[in-house]
Amino acid sequence: MSVIEKFSLKDSLAIVTGGAGLLGKQHVEALIEAGADVIIFDINENALEETKKYFLKKYNTDVLSLKVDITNEDEILKAKEKIFKHFSKFPNILINNAAIDPKFEKNSAVNKSRLENFDARQWNLEISVGLTGAMLCSKIFGAEMAKNKRGIILNIASDLGVIAPDQRLYKQDGLKDEEQNVKPVTYSVIKHGLIGLTKYIATYWADKGVRCNAFAPGGVFNNHSDEFVNKIAQLIPMKRMANLDEYKASVVFLCSDASSYMNGATLNMDGGRSVW
Ligand SMILES: NC(=O)c1ccc[n+]([C@@H]2O[C@H](COP(=O)([O-])OP(=O)(O)OC[C@H]3O[C@@H](n4cnc5c(N)ncnc54)[C@H](O)[C@@H]3O)[C@@H](O)[C@H]2O)c1
């Protein structure tokens, strides 16, 4: 097999959770370009429909878009049945990508993003998607992969799964310390937790032909303010955020035979931020 052939995902069937979101759609595109059939799990019905239309138009590929709340095991199990009916097989690739991007009211009397005020319900909600959802999908589809002796689970962590957030990035002039927004504690815990889940699964099913790795990307530029971009650039040796399509090749590498001896690892791709 030539080195280029090792990147091929022909005959692969992949699920991307949160595949209708900003980065999820890029993962889907990468998988399609490498030859895989793709299933998206997302809760955002409009985005699911738009994403399906987008790939039909761009690649003439019919992505199976399923409204699945990954915190709900019954919904995942129903989706599993639909997938088998549709493809007569189970997926050999799972990308655990879904997450809640929490929005906190700015300038309210109590800043709920701050640890001192962080609500346990908000904690549970975010953990249920970022960690419990990833565990449930891994359990249900990973078990089939282990039976088939073939599979790859890729957990989308973050540079903040490897380093702590620098809260100075989110500081706004004119606000007292207790009013400042911060990157919430859940983000660190979920992203570090996904790296733990990666190591657990990597050793649990290694003898069954299932590999599991984590990907730790840095922030993607998405119309952030100049002020934010200038601040974050100071923390990144390459002095810029990632472009939206810059992670596609890594996703194909991690989901293909190109990474056949990689297991339990975390691939950092953050312009060098985490080594400073
Ligand atoms: N965007 C970045 O700069 C960046 C950087 C590093 C890591 N990441 C990670 O990449 C992943 C994707 O980020 P994004 O920027 O595309 O976020 P996004 O908010 O655009 O996408 C997340 C998707 O997950 C879906 N989702 C939420 N709850 C769900 C549930 N219960 N069941 C199924 N789907 C659900 C949302 O509907 C959404 O489409 C996240 O894990 C994020 O932490 C993002």
Task: Describe the protein.
The protein is of the alpha/beta class. The protein is globular and about 60 Å long. Helix 1 (22-33) crosses helix 7 (248-255) and helix 4 runs parallel beside helix 5. Strands 3-2-1-4-5-6-7 form a seven-stranded parallel beta sheet, with helices on both faces. Helix 2 links the parallel strand 2 and strand 3. The chain has one domain: 3-Layer(aba) Sandwich (Rossmann fold), CATH 3.40.50. It has helices at 22-33, 45-59, 73-87, 120-148, 185-204, 226-233, 248-255; strands at residues 13-17, 37-42, 64-67, 93-96, 151-156, 210-217, 266-269. The N and C termini lie far apart (38 Å). It is built from seven helices and seven strands. The chain is 39% helix and 13% strand. Residues 17-18, 20-24, 41-44, 47, 68-71, 97-101, 129, 133, 156, 158, 217, 219-220 line the site of nicotinamide-adenine-dinucleotide.
In short:
The protein has 276 residues and is α/β, with parallel strands linked by helices. It has one domain: NAD(P)-binding Rossmann-like Domain (Rossmann fold), CATH 3.40.50.
